[in-house]
Fold this protein.
Amino acid sequence: MDSEVKEEIPVHEEFILCCGVETQVLKCGPWTDLLTVKSADRPKLLIFIITGNPGFAALYVPFAKALFSSIDRRFPVWIISHAGHTMAPKDKGTLTTCDDAHAGNVKDVYGLRGQVEHKVAFLRTHVPR
């Protein structure tokens, strides 16, 4: 029964450019652009999962679905891949995003500091304060 509930939860996949690198974002729950949603309709909390190593977001889908289900689907659960760990399939486009101005200073987006800056840039450009 529990696995049936998790199967019913849709997962939305996006590929964006963040710090100039293709990045996979998987979303359970509201997956609209949170910056354009009216503040009264915007969720008050976002659960943001940063992958470990390897940085493949798809490995975390069962966990994200279970988490989303356990909070009664009240808040979105998003998973972000590490920079450079996933490429968009040829039939799926990459969304161009407005990168964070501070992200331009990242010397090595694939190193530890660069991966941290990559996540900070995503949060600054995709999640309202």
In short: The two ends are 37 Å apart (CA to CA).
